[in-house]
Amino acid sequence: MEPVAVTTLTNFAGIGYISNVGSLKKVRGKGFGKTASLYSAQQSVNNGNQVHALATEEGDYPNEFYKRIGFETKFSTLGFVKR
Known about the structure:
- With 83 residues, the protein is α+β, with helices and mostly antiparallel strands.
- It is built from two helices and three strands, in the order E-E-H-E-H.
- The mean pLDDT is 93.
């Protein structure tokens, strides 16, 4: 067996923040990203968080993916980049 997907869960002040979700290219489309994301959301519940959040960019694939697996857009914000 080999690891094929990864995710990070950060817990702070009742919020579980899910980030760094990814899977190996050879297994994409086989449900591992979904499984990793939903596992992190369940761990967030188990950790006592009241909110389970993540961030995506509007119009990009991950945004639509997370909507399909049950996440809802609650707010939008500006992002800034310094080059």
